[in-house]
Sequence to fold (117 residues):
Amino acid sequence: MADRPIYRSLLETLRTDEPGGWAGAKSRKHWAEEMKDDAFAEQFTGTMDARGLYVGTLLAERLNLQGRRRVLDVAGGSGIYACCIAAAHPHVRATVFERSPVDRLAAKCIANGDFQT
Fold:
């Protein structure tokens, strides 16, 4: 794994505490800068949702939210994890906090019911 660009970038970010570049982007901007582009943010978020639906469902099944009424998902991307939690725990209201432009994508995905859990 050490030879893979994405892991080298992650290690560099951890070592320097500076944002890393997005290994798949041709422009090689910092990931945070890439996410300001609507098209890139939509593509990246959609890719992450493929994993998020599986992992989010498993996470939600294992969470004990008895006695809890709210969940705040900070940097929640599309809202996939919050939606999985809310689906598994109907008594919980989930809120996703995300920055632009991903916040608009999250609102659209959640409103459209894009996540089938």
Summary: The chain has two domains: 1-34, 37-117. Residues 37-117 form a domain with the Rossmann fold fold (CATH 3.40.50.150). The beta strands are 70-74, 93-97.
